[in-house]
Amino acid sequence: KSDLTQIPSAEHLKLCVWEGAAESQIRIQVSQLDKPNHQYIDECRTIPEACRGDMVCVNQNGGYLCIPRTNPVYRSPYLNPYSNIYPPPPASNYPTATRPLICRFGYQMDENNQCVDIDECAAESHQCNPTQICINTEGGYTCSCTEGYWLLEGQCLDIDECRYGYCQQLCANVPGSYSCTCNPGFTLNDDGRSCQDVNECTSQNPCVQNCVNTYGSFLCRCDPGYELEADGISCSDMDECSFSEFLCQHQCVNEPGAYYCSCPPGYILLDDNRSCQDINECETRNNTCTTQQTCFNIQGGYKCLDPVKCEDPYIQINDNRCMCPAENPGCRDQPFTILYRDMDVVSGRSVPSDIFQMQATTRYPGAYYIFQIKSGNEGREFYMRQTGPISATLVMTRPVKGPRVIQLDLEMITVNTVINFRGSSVIRLRIYVSQYSF
Fold this sequence. Notes:
It is a single chain. This protein is mainly beta. It has helices spanning 43-46, 120-123, 200-203, 281-284, and strands spanning 13-19, 24-30, 55-60, 63-68, 107-109, 115-117, 133-137, 140-144, 149-152, 155-158, 170-174, 177-181, 186-188, 195-197, 210-214, 217-221, 226-228, 235-237, 251-255, 258-262, 267-269, 276-278, 294-298, 301-305, 315-318, 321-323, 337-345, 353-359, 367-375, 382-388, 391-396, 404-416, 421-433. InterPro entries: cEGF (IPR026823), ECM_structural_protein (IPR050751), EGF (IPR000742), EGF-like_Ca-bd_dom (IPR001881), EGF-type_Asp/Asn_hydroxyl_site (IPR000152), EGF_Ca-bd_CS (IPR018097), Fibulin_C (IPR055088), Growth_fac_rcpt_cys_sf (IPR009030).
């Protein structure tokens, strides 16, 4: 290790290590001294980057040396520090052959005898797969894939971007790329990935009346009194009158988008806009009765009543009462008095219902009273219910439909067993049944 050991073979590579006081150096020497007719080459000039890093190339006979820049032995790139150890061989008398210049793999000699990089991609001398692309590098090339592909076992395979959620809504994978689309009601933003809601109400407003935008869609709404049709866009009038027969007391009138209640002649509509109230034509003097007639108001109208005329053998004792005198033989089997009364009831009144009360005006000792319907009750719609010794009530037992006029003779029979007396009085009651139930 203290000196140089040389292997005396003309074809062999010599590796010598010399340890100095400060540093070590490696010298590579190719000895061909035993071969005549060879010309020595300056490898430091002909080989690009013969020494790398912090090493400096020093040419040697038959080779070159790489030493650190800080080595004190180093003086110039072409100084041979071992020239005294390895003296140059004597000049040969044989003819010499020029050694050809050789470039490293991936380089070629240009016209200036410089080693330049070979563009294998442009020369199509690469070995890349047809699915790959060639990228030239210094002294070589690499095989890569285009955007949208990845390299797997020497093949460029398409990347399914849709698996990684590149799109907000709909994603369609295509070779080497992908395409984002949006659901109906959305539009693709400028970034090509996210979607934005479309306000159909402002852009096209497909609704006939009112449009309400929703996320990704819209809803059509109709004005009060209208209902949405099956197409979800059009509105048609809602027939409120068909919903219930109780909307109006009398008649429901439908109109576009609404309805109103009407009342028959003789009635006015109340503030609730559904109920009807009778107009009292006798109080408002909105009637056609003469001065000799009496105006009698009924539900939905009025009656002009003529003065009471008593038939023979009765005599008139006031406006509505007739009396049959006891001294008149024709009055023996007739009621002593006939009182004329008028009343009105609504059609279809609920039953049973008390509608009229009858009672004796004078009570005699030992007398009792019998109340009955003498005539006019052929339909058995009424009966008399005695409510006390001297009173009774007329009860409606069946609904009566109008318009109709019913005349009942309500008889009160007086029986006195003390004086052996039997007599009767009659109330001739005219009942005006209205056309309507209100």
